Amino acid sequence: MTMIDPAIVPQRTLYTGAKLPAVGMGTFGSDHADADAVSAAVAGAIRVGYRSFDCAACYGNEDMIGQVFADAFAEGVVKREDLFIASKVWNDMHGDGDVLIACAKTLKDLKLDYLDMYYVHWPFPNYHAPHCDVDSRNPDSKPFTVERFMKTWRQMERLVDMGLTKHIGMSNMTIPKLEAVLPLCRIKPAAIEMELHPCFQQPELFEYCQKQGIEVVGFCPIGSPERPERDKMPEDIADIELPELKAIAEAHGVHPAVICIKWAVQRGVSPIPFSLKEKNYTMNLKCVTEDPLTDAEMETIRSLDKNNRLIKGHVFLWEGAKDWHDLWDEDGVIVK
Ligand SMILES: NC(=O)c1ccc[n+]([C@@H]2O[C@H](COP(=O)([O-])OP(=O)(O)OC[C@H]3O[C@@H](n4cnc5c(N)ncnc54)[C@H](OP(=O)(O)O)[C@@H]3O)[C@@H](O)[C@H]2O)c1
């Protein structure tokens, strides 16, 4: 086992002054890796030097990951205050009082007294069942509204007041939605999670968040090659198969996945790659401590953006919505 000293991993500073390691470990098994496999990878990742973990209630594995954290604390591998642990409220828990219940359940499962970050996983109360397919629709699904979102956010703010989470964040947002809700927030989001990989760079949203002092956490940083079947469309492009990316990987003697992580961190994103394999998750952390990409390589990767969103969100569509593009306010206005 190669151990990476967490002190040499680049750190981000959130607006509160808290530190976030620039690379975290994802924990979504993508409907194929079970809770045993994911929690075993988390146990290994702590031991190789990961200090940031991206959890969520809907990943269905927080109780097992919680045991991994508890064992690591008990064995003296790491202290609670050395970890940055994030979780997310799932879409079926946006109702009055539900956010507190969801957070309490997550804390119980993760066996923690507090979270470092708690995200609103999606900005609307639209639920889908685990393992569902692309045509699955919930008849109760509703479009985003500022009123509904702020009802959820007020509950998130109270979690900070109560000390149950140090920070709160949002995920799967758009600029129009942020413009509408940020002025209303008593406690500003400290981070926003969004899909980011070479073929989907979201430059406007990325820059918007940076200007607002909000940390950008990038999910699916490798282009999620093993994402659930419902998220695979014939038009999707595989980032790690792009010839330009492969050539850069060859020049550095690493897998193209590793180049995606280096690029993200050098760009200023905090990626949260997932891997079940010790060799891969070790490299995903180690790679940001050595052998940086050149300016020319960074520019080549910048030019690979193809606006290829992978997690399109079909299963969250409400009655009357046209198609998945309606979730992303592509014309600059919130689609209702
Ligand atoms: N907020 C949201 O709505 C949202 C949505 C999606 C995901 N997320 C979060 O983002 C995390 C990451 O996204 P993701 O898991 O979908 O995709 P990802 O990190 O882009 O890709 C993971 C895949 O890449 C492979 N991989 C990882 N490192 C590698 C390496 N060094 N060399 C070769 N292959 C490598 C893994 O295979 P092996 O296991 O074989 O290494 C795995 O199949 C999730 O786990 C979750 O925590 C959040």
From TrEMBL:
<protein>
    <submittedName>
        <fullName>Aldo/keto reductase</fullName>
    </submittedName>
</protein>
<feature type="binding site">
    <location>
        <position position="121"/>
    </location>
    <ligand>
        <name>substrate</name>
    </ligand>
</feature>
<dbReference type="InterPro" id="IPR020471">
    <property type="entry name" value="AKR"/>
</dbReference>
<dbReference type="InterPro" id="IPR018170">
    <property type="entry name" value="Aldo/ket_reductase_CS"/>
</dbReference>
<dbReference type="InterPro" id="IPR023210">
    <property type="entry name" value="NADP_OxRdtase_dom"/>
</dbReference>
<feature type="domain" description="NADP-dependent oxidoreductase">
    <location>
        <begin position="23"/>
        <end position="305"/>
    </location>
</feature>
<feature type="site" description="Lowers pKa of active site Tyr">
    <location>
        <position position="88"/>
    </location>
</feature>
<feature type="active site" description="Proton donor">
    <location>
        <position position="59"/>
    </location>
</feature>
<dbReference type="Pfam" id="PF00248">
    <property type="entry name" value="Aldo_ket_red"/>
</dbReference>
<dbReference type="GO" id="GO:0016491">
    <property type="term" value="F:oxidoreductase activity"/>
</dbReference>
<dbReference type="InterPro" id="IPR036812">
    <property type="entry name" value="NAD(P)_OxRdtase_dom_sf"/>
</dbReference>
